[in-house]
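Recap from last week: sequence in, structure out.
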Amino acid sequence: MIKASDVKELRERTGAGMLDCKKALEATSGDMEKAIDWLREKGISKAAKKEGRIAAEGLTEAQAEGNVAVLLEVNCETDFVSQNDSFKKLLEDIRLTLLHNPVTSMEDANQLTIEGGSDTIDAAIVDFTAKIGEKISFRRFERIEKTDSQVFGIYSHMGGKITAVVVLDGATEDVARDVAMHVAAMNPVAIRRSEVPADMVERESHVIKEQVLGEGKPADIAEKMVTGRLNKFYKEICLEEQAFIKDSNTNVLNYVKANGGEIVSMKRFAVGEGIEKKQENFADEVMSQIKSA
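Predicted C-alpha cells:
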C-alpha cells in the first residue's frame, strides 16, 4: 500500500505530478530512491523542472473533417523549436487525435491516447519536453461542429502563428476562407454588437463620455457624440461591421450576404496571446549557462 506521505515527499523531491509519483512508487514497491530513478528514466522529473519556465512561442493549427473541425495551440520556449519537424509532428498527432475523439475539456483531451501510438497526449508532451530540452505545453483547443448546410473556412497566417476558423451558412468554402483570413488579420472581438461583452461596452462608453465632457460640450450634445463614437467603436471590433480586408468598399456582413451566406461562428488563436513573456538579456543568459555547465 502506497502511503500518501510518500507520494507527497516524492513530489517535493522531483517536482513531478501526484499521479506520476504514485505510479513511480507502485512500480518500485515503494522504494523512494528507485522511484526517483524511475521518474528520471521516464523523463518526467526532468520535464517537471521546466514547469516554471515560460513557453510563449509555438504554433496554432486547425483541420476540418466532415462536420467537425479542431483548432489548437501547442507552445514551446523558442521559435527555433517551433520550426522543428518533430515539434510539428507532435502538433499533427495531437490535432488528429482531437479530431477523431469527441472531447471538449483539456482534462479529457490530455488523457486521450495519441492516434497511432500508445502514449496519452499528456505523456507525449512530457516525453517531448524531456527529449527537446524545453518546456512544451499543450495550451488549448476548440472543437467546432457544423451542419450539412454549413461550411468551414480555415486560414493560417505566418506559418501557424495565427489560425482562424469560421462557420458560414449558405456560402462556399472559398467565401468562408476569405472571412477566416479577415478574422486572422483583424482580430474582431465579436461577430455582432449583441455579442460584445457588456463590461467592454460600459467601459468604452465611460471613456468616451469623459473625453466629450472634457472637451466642454453641453450634456445633450455630449450624449449624441457618445452614441456616434460608440458606433465607430463597434465598427472597429465587430466582425460584421469591419471593412472587409479584401475590399474596403464593403463590410464583412455585406460581403457574406452578397455570396448567399450568413456568419455562424468564429474562433481565432494567436500563439502566446495572454502569456506574459519573460524578458531576458541574451548575454546574461549565455553567461548563466556557462557558469552552470
